[in-house]
Amino acid sequence: MFKNTLSRRTLLQGTMAAGAMSAGGLGLGPLPALADPQWKKYAGTKLEVLLAKGPRGDNFQKNIKEFTDLTGIEVESEQVPEQQQRQKAVIELASGKPSFDVVHLSYHVQKRQFEKGGWLADLSGFMKDPNLTASDLTESDFSAAGLKYAKDDKGRLLSLPWSVDYFILYYNKEMFEKKNIAVPKTFDEMVAAAEKLTDPAAGTFGFVGRGLRNANMTLWTNFFLNYGGEFLDAKGEILTDGPEAIEATKLYQKLLTKYAPPGVSGFNWMESMASFTQGRSAMWLDGVGWAPPLEDPSASRIVGKVGYTVVPAGPKGQYSATYGDGIGIAAASKNKEAAFLLCQWAVSKKQGARLLQAGGGVPFRNSILNDQDVRNGVKLPKEWVQSVIDSAKISKLGLPVVIPVAEFRDLVGAGVTATLSGGDPAAELKKAHEQFRPILERSEKS
Amino acid sequence: MSNHQTATPPPRKAWRVPSYWPFVIPALIVVAGIIVFPWLFTIWMSMHEWKVGAPTTFVGLANYIRLPSDPRFVEAVGHTITYTLLSVILPVIFGTFAAVIFHQKFPFRGFLRGLFIMPMMATPVAVALVWTMMFHPQLGVLNYILSLFGLPAELWVFHPGSVIPSLVMVETWQWTPLVMLIVLGGLSAIPSEPYESARIDGANAWQMFRYITLPLITPFIFVASMIRMIDAVKSFDIIFAITQGGPGSASETINLYLYSVAFVYYDIGYGSAIAVVFFVLIVVLAAIMLYMRQRLHWNQTGGAA
């Protein structure tokens, strides 16, 4: 089914087959040497894994038998809904005796918190050990954003980047064609298009996106970054109430009050997606992972009519706000080597290809994304793949890397939501930051 | 008084362990373990800078001092009080009204009573999800009903101004039957003689309700209000499932804020301080109601008159 299932077997068979593979156009990146980790060394070990519910977790659990067959390591895994999984992970790790060896973490929420707690094992040493690491798994294969997320400020690799989430622009081709509008390349064009596509009497709107407090920050930061915003200055001072932020909020306010469905201030991705799949909204800016439901006839009325493109450019640049998750090993685990084999398998080329091909996530590894055979196996429209590849080039971390991320999202998010019911952008941001600054200071100094 | 008695006990026999102790101790242990200890521990935590993943330090009352200068907390107190007042008053009015109606004799009364208390039996989260759909500004049935009367569409829970009244509507819908059941019990205990004499004296229906029924059922209304108040002040499920405190933080009550602080921001010390203040607030509200009861002699059937 997958070309790269072959690659493992051929690797074992020797160089001749590997040569044939590369001749066949399989870009394996740096050609792997014969060295394979000693997969069987930890046979009989039992590992516990805590996963967040979602396509990554599904892909992991569906194929875990292959890992057990390969290594003889038994794996017990559970998928818990995201919010609860984060709570469970934090509480158990803080207790010092987590019930799991391997944990799925959300970088944009938990990176600094996990680093500060010292909860994750340092993987840098394992990566250098040929007995543990396959030669095709190198740090440089991960995208820059992934490495930024996975490494702490001392350069230690604390997790393996698993799946990246870029924001892209979904648009309804039919609605665009009807009004003869070109796909927006800039924010100005996006606003103009949204205006033309909005017809409240017919119940159709030009734009939809997250308005709900907290969730909305992941959308807002796309605007912020493209207005030239930076989250933190050199001293770690938060900058999200500066002029760029005010401009970004004005744009956000305009799009979501004038051209979006009523009630958008309570919309998370789910409600936004509902409006988009019903054909009631023409544009939707959200994470790259929603393509499968949009192209699923049982869930969507616009199958085959969805266009995919990168986030339009702002006045000061074009970035796609990037989020991601990784897989790491609890520092308290007694089976770190076996756990490392498991993490490595989870981000392996084969697993990554499956994830991408099902549209369940985008691997951080360039060797997977750039592999033409893997790309050809993607069941989603070509445009989607292209938007992923183009987004990778303009990717920028979508939230400030601080400990109180949740407070940031709640407080600033509440301010941004308040502008949807008439609040003044500058005043709301100022108010939110007056509350957030002391929290940030407290968390950084303690 | 009791001191006086124990101070001079009749010297009948030497004191020994009362024989009921073995029966009391298990209950005492349970109470100490699940009520007293958690409370003392919460108070102790509230005196610390206590964040998950960081060492704890004793900070005395700093967490409490932080509260009044935290606008989110102050707003949450305001939301809680508004929410509680509305969700006590409305169900009490409607519940009393419903009780008076269901006290009359009419066909299918038992069946209709059963129907009326259905909302109370539903799970709050399920109720919340159904109402969320009904509140939907584009697809919800509420705006459709408004449109039938030519009224403009409302934003319901999606606008900061209307979110608390909308949530109270759900709360009222669900808990009016409880008030009705309690008041109904009161109504059935009223003797029929006062009504007969009132009728002879030429009183109309309103006068009979105002001067006979209402004073007689006031103690029951009081009990219902008390139960409603305690329930409403700590309401969490309906708000969390419908708005999560939004839009913005327009429906964030103390309970929701407390949840965020403790379990999303992992600021256990500050969260504990909020919990303690919240507890004090509930006690104060209950005390006010008890005081009112004393003042108005609601405890005496027949009222102050």
CATH architecture of the largest domain in chain A: 3-Layer(aba) Sandwich
CATH class of chain B: Mainly Alpha
CATH fold call of the largest domain in chain A:
D-Maltodextrin-Binding Protein, domain 2
**Count of DSSP H/I helices of chain B:** 14
User: Quick one: how many beta strands of chain B?
Assistant: 2
Give the proportion of residues in helices of chain A: 40-55%
- Under CATH, the topology of chain B can be stated as MetI-like fold
The description of the largest β-sheet of chain B is: 2 strands, antiparallel
Shape of chain B: globular
Distance between the termini of chain B: 34 Å
What is the CATH architecture descriptor of chain B? Answer: Orthogonal Bundle
Radius of gyration of chain A: 22 Å
Helix content of chain B: 55-70%
Structure description:
Chain A is of the alpha/beta class and 446 residues long. Chain A has two domains: 3-165 and 323-396, Periplasmic binding protein-like II (D-Maltodextrin-Binding Protein, domain 2); 166-321 and 399-445, Periplasmic binding protein-like II (D-Maltodextrin-Binding Protein, domain 2), CATH 3.40.190. Chain A is 46% helix and 14% strand. Chain A has helices spanning 3-13, 15-23, 55-71, 82-95, 107-117, 124-128, 144-150, 173-178, 187-197, 217-226, 243-258, 269-277, 291-294, 336-346, 349-357, 366-369, 372-376, 382-393, 405-418, 425-445; strands at 46-52, 74-80, 102-106, 159-172, 205-208, 281-287, 306-310, 320-329, 362-363, 395-397. In chain A, strands 1, 2, 3, 4, 5, 6, 7, 8, 9 and 10 form a ten-stranded mixed β-sheet that branches. In chain A, α3 (55-71) links the parallel β1 (46-52) and β2 (74-80). The radius of gyration of chain A is 22 Å and the shape is globular. With 305 residues, chain B is mainly α. Chain B has one domain: MetI-like fold (Orthogonal Bundle). In chain B, 69% of the residues lie in helices and 1% in strands. Chain B has 14 helices and two strands. A two-stranded antiparallel sheet of chain B has the order 1-2. In chain B, α2 crosses α14, α9 (163-188) packs across α11 and α11 packs antiparallel against α14. The model of chain B is unreliable at 301-305 (pLDDT under 50). Chain A binds chain B through residues 87, 90-91, 93-94, 113, 116-117, 119, 203, 211-213, 261-266, 275, 280, 404, 406-407, 410-411, 414-415, 417-418, 420-421, 431, 435, 443, 446, and chain B through 49, 51-54, 70-72, 136-138, 153, 155-161, 243-249, 260, 263-266.
